[in-house]
C-alpha cells in the first residue's frame, strides 16, 4: 500500500477499529498510563494534543480528570459525530481537526503544545511520511508520549488488510533531539515518554 491508500483505509474505516468501535470500549489502562504521565510531567493545566484521537476516548479520560486545553487530530470525519454522542462535554470543550495528521501538523507553531501523544496511531504513518515525526517533536514543548505496538518486523498486517509500520520509537525521537525519560509495557503497547532537551 502506498501512503494515500493507507490514509484512505482509515478515512473510510467502519466496524472494527472505527470511531464507534473505540467509543464502545472507552478508556483503558493505556488511557490511564497517558494521564498519569502527562499529569506528573506537565500538570492538568497543560495544552495537550492527541494525534489519531478517533472518537476521543483517551482525551475524554483526560477531560474527566480536569484537563481542559485538549486538542485532537483524527482522519475519520465520522469520529466527530461519535464524539458528540458519546463524549459531549469533550466535544464541546475541546478543539478538533478531522483531517490526516500529515495535513495538519505542519500548521502548528513551534512548541505549541505542552504534550503531544498518540496511541497506536503513529504506527500507521507510511514510511514515505516519516517527516511527520520531525513535526511532532517540533510542536511539543515539553513532552511526547507514544503508545505503539512494537515488533521486530518492519511491517505486519492487521487482519491481512492494513499495515502497521514498526519503528524503533526510542531511536526515532532521540535522533530528533528528544530524550527518552521512561518506557513501560502497558497491555500490548509500549508507552514511551520523551522530553525536550532545549
- Per DSSP E runs of 2 or more residues, the count of β-strands stands at 9
Category from helices, strands and their pairing: alpha/beta
Q: Helix proportion of residues, in percent?
A: 25-40%
Rg, alpha carbons: 15 Å
Distance between the termini: 37 Å
Do you know the CATH architecture?
Answer: 3-Layer(aba) Sandwich
CATH superfamily: Vaccinia Virus protein VP39
Short description:
With 198 residues, the chain is an alpha/beta fold.
Q: Could you characterize what this model shows?
A:
Strand 4 (113-119), helix 8 and strand 5 form a beta-alpha-beta unit. The longest helix is centred in the N-terminal third of the chain and has 14 residues, at 29-42. Strands 3-2-1-4-5-9-8 form a seven-stranded mixed beta sheet. Strands 6-7 form a two-stranded antiparallel sheet. It has helices spanning 3-11, 19-25, 29-42, 57-64, 78-86, 88-93, 101-104, 131-139, 169-174, and strands at residues 47-51, 69-73, 95-97, 113-119, 140-148, 155-158, 162-165, 178-186, 189-196. The chain has a single domain (3-196), classed as Vaccinia Virus protein VP39 (Rossmann fold). With 198 residues, the protein is an alpha/beta fold. Helix 3 packs across helix 4. The protein contains nine helices and nine strands. The chain is globular, with a radius of gyration of 15 Å. 36% of the residues lie in helices and 27% in strands.
